[in-house]
Amino acid sequence: MNHTKSEQIHEEALQHIVGGVNSPSRSYKAVGGGSPVVMARGKGAYFWDVDGNRYIDYLAAYGPIITGFGHPHIAKAITLAAETGVLFGTPTEHEVKFAKMLKEAIPSLDKVRFTNSGTEAVMTTVRVARAYTGRTKIIKFAGCYHGHFDQVLVAAGSGPATLGSPDSAGVPVAVATEVITVPFNNKEQFQLAMDKWGDEVAAILIEPIVGNFGIVEPNKGFLEYVHTVAKEKGALTIHDEVITAFRFHYGAAQDLLGLTPDLTAMGKIIGGGLPIGAYGGRKEIMETVAPLGPAYQAGTMAGNPASMLAGIACLEVLKQPGVYEEMDRLGAMLEKGILQSAEKHGITITVNRLKGALTVYFTNEKVENYEQAENSDGELFGRFFKLMLSKGVNLAPSKYEAWFLTTEHTEQDIMETIEAVDYAFSQLK
Ligand code: PMP
Fold first, then answer.
1. Per the database entry, which stretches of residues form a coiled coil (predicted)?
2. I need a surface site. Which of 140, 206, 260, 281 has the fewest CB within 10 A?
3. pLDDT of residue 157
4. Burial of 230 by CB count in 10 Å (0-12 exposed, 13-18 middle, 19+ buried)?
């Protein structure tokens, strides 16, 4: 496969854009380096690079593209916005319609607010939780990503009862020490942290089904326990559903799990591919937000008509009967094919899958926390990633990411992908 033009463009990008990319995860740093493939256009489950190579895509732009590229219903909505005004700086009816749709699908949302990114949505839920409780500390789980604002770019201290340290240059130690990081799926460590800091904790920040060290479901009873202890200690629960909202069913992960968080942050899918974030939750908590209350959050672009109309159109597509069942069916087929091929070639892997999302870890351990995901073989994954790319299958360039199916993938695409996997595994030995 020829990537000459991609390489030329990336060389030029390196002169003008930091690291040649506008988000670090797009670089191939985690898969052994090289020029990232530069994409030209997409349609359905495929996209084509600037050299004319076609790929079956499982990146889905890190999650949002659940209806594939250039979906006609979404394209029509975006065109309408382009023709009738993409931004007014005033309220529109679209915002109300979309807020109602989200509330209908996710019962814990009494009131919502739109933002422009997942980062902004999560950042605001943390501020609102602090404003509402009058407390400052946050507990998060190791390996979960919540955006790039200071308070969540924090690494674990040396144990759950230790305060965090900055995970990025530029994050003040004073900010990091307000954050406690504990391992996912570990009740004892969570309890230790709550015993020590519980009375100072404003909120527990939770990816209810983890997407950021691969797809990892909570063990039975774990999140129920977290919710119960949080309530006992007067801390709020925040579900970061930026990946999970509308990924697994028409609604949020909280409803699949039977949990009711105080606040929820969303993004990605709900924008139909356009920039978006949203947060919402219990009425009395949300009413601490300006102009009703003292917690400030705003945005020139927030609730813009293009993102609202694209989001509404995306949810309309997802609401069609059978959509999620089909992604589940194809996901199961893909998982089975990957496992069979691994066995055939003597490659040791663990596959975590929930419906149309899965992660392949090069490890013989089960993966239910970050440490186990970290222990999977990144060098082997890097080689696998490049072999898949050479066969026209695009994955996320990191061992920690998920493969996402879309409504546009077909059985034929899955078969082709399994063939590519079989080739890649044969070469990895
Ligand atoms: N929360 C989670 C769970 C995410 O996966 C992400 C993005 N990968 C974010 C928040 C941040 O969203 P954004 O990139 O839109 O700011």
1. none
2. 260
3. 79
4. buried
Collapsed DSSP state (helix, strand, coil) of residue 372: helix
- Single out the catalytic residue among 240, 262, 328, 422: 240
Q: What is the pLDDT of residues 194-229, one digit of tens each?
A: 999 999 999 999 999 999 999 999 999 999 999 999
Question: What is the rounded radius of gyration, in angstroms, for the C-alpha atoms of the chain?
Answer: 21
Rounded (10°) angle between helices 411-428 and 323-345? 20
Residue 359 one-letter amino acid: T
Single-letter amino acid code for the residue at 308:
M
Let me know if domain 4-70+323-428 sits in CATH 3.40.50.2000.
Answer: no
Residue 394 to residue 424: CA distance in whole angstroms:
13
Kindly list the domain boundaries of the chain, sorted by start residue: 4-70+323-428, 72-318
- For ligand 1, atom 5, the nearest C-alpha belongs to 243
Claim: this prediction has a pTM higher than 0.95 = yes
Q: Which class does domain 72-318 fall in?
A: alpha beta
Residue range 75-100: average pLDDT?
A: 98
Reported as a single tens digit per residue, the pLDDT across 363-417 is: 999 999 999 999 999 999 999 999 999 999 999 999 999 999 999 999 999 999 9
